[in-house]
Amino acid sequence: MSNAIHIIGGGMAGVEAAWACARAGVPAVIHEMRPKVGTFAHRTGDLAEMVCSNSFRSDDHEQNAVGLLHWEMRAAGSLVMEMAARHRLPAGGALAVDRDAFSRDVTAAIRSNPLISVVEGEMTTLPKDGSWIVATGPLTSGALAESIRAATGAEQLAFFDAIAPIVHADTIDMSVAWRQSRYDKGETEEERTAYINCPMTKEQYEAFIDAMLAAEKTEFHEGETAGYFDGCLPVEVMAERGRETLRFGPMKPVGLTNAHQPDVKPHAVVQLRRDNALGTLYNIVGFQTKMKYGAQTSVFKMIPGLENASFARLGGIHRNTFINSPTLLDSQMRLKAHPWLRFAGQITGVEGYVESAAMGMLAGRLAAAEARGEALPPVPATTAVGALVSHITGGADAKSFQPMNVNFGLFPPLPEARGGRRGRAERYKGYTDRAKADWSAWLSGMVARAAE
User: Fold this and answer.
1) Is residue 420 annotated as involved in ligand binding?
2) Per the annotation, does 384 bind a ligand?
3) In this structure, what CATH number is given to the domain that contains residue 310?
4) For the MnmG N-terminal domain, which residue ranges apply (predicted)?
5) What sign for the dihedral angle of Cα 175, 179, 183, 188?
């Protein structure tokens, strides 16, 4: 495959990049270091393994920017979205999946595609020529990270991601906990009861906060500093920012009614979301943590309903790597200093599974078009994909650049849109309607050019 697009990394961005190349008729080679070289966070050698949450977040494509991104990716033939639909779990308005079945089927689809091959083994240096997409994600190996730093001429930027614990469902006390999605969201009874809720009184909440703050935490290595991404804060770091922070975050009690005591309003609620299709595993929503294992067990068993819980996996913490994309990348996602290298996924400074996959999909399309001697027009910044790529390739302030989820704040304003909270629903619907029209037109233009 001398004319192939080579992709370093087989995560969300890597598989989408390869899939996009293959759909364009261009061969692709994924270079994945696992299972030969493992990481502390991965458990398998499968591609697109989900190591943190099992959720792609909101699937509302009319009122939520993440849901809009789902819609755009589906319209473009996303492999990740196809497999997510196949292995979807009840999660209210969110798109959650059975993580093991999801990654197994992604891997099978990639390996069975005649235009895609997978080479197992670690890449320790950046290539000097060819056509490459670097999609190594947050756990870029040390040797390759050093090579990236040398190629970019900039200091590596880093923040820390934390992993939430997973509980065996049959060890949750359902005489205390109850099943309900917030605000009873969902079209079916299964969706409306997708979460397990554990209520806390004010006294229990205060004791829980005290224990979390006093718990022994993972220490950082010398020279490392914790530059957390606000969208994925460890639960104890949120508590350190104020005792009420969690009640307005993952432990907010609004939209929930205790089925056992409907007349008693909980002071705080811990939610658990199904983690596999069998419903035997649940992850504690928003409870990423850097507490040591022994401390986690004792602290999390203070949650009403989890006093006798058995943990399939405890939480963890890892360093995350990203480049200063607004300075380093051009509009085609190429490294300005070495244009045979494209970057995609979390390493570019987008945050989240779906954002990473979307940037991989776009990088694959751009690389395939270049291989075919074509030039794609810019993706409209009015779309979710376009808003993200515009942000990382120049829209963000390079001096304060930090990982970013897709959100309507990245979109060009709507003319004459009503401001404030009262106009929000109409404004968001305006954003999504405009994005769908512009994305569909952009995709139609690609199809027309391919037919010429």
Assistant:
1) no
2) no
3) 2.40.30.260
4) 5-374
5) negative
